[in-house]
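Example record

The entry below shows one chain as it appears in the dataset: sequence first, then structure tokens.
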Amino acid sequence: MAGFRNPDFAERQEAAAKAKKAALENFRAKAADPTLSERLTARTASAAERKAIKEAREAEKAEQKAREAERAAQAAREAAAAAERAKIESADREVALQAEQKAARDARYAARKTRSKRK
């Protein structure tokens, strides 16, 4: 039975060099593969397509946000106009009420004067 043998420094260096050489050959073989360039081209094209879709989506979101802001501003303007109309109508009603109360008061005063003159 063979025992475990510790590799010395030179053997370890040689094994490391062989591993590096095999990795380099593997990398060169993959780099020379014509399907790799096709895959990279396809990947680049799909990335550009995703980017264009994302930009279109962001533009649509910006337009939607602008439309929402315009709607909110329009609603605020309408609310302010309605509040102003309500304020004016309230003031008109108050003036009419005061005029009516004054007329009633004057009528009571005139009635009291006519009663006191008859006596």
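Notes for this example: The chain has a mean pLDDT of 91. Residues 22 and 118 are 134 Å apart (CA to CA).
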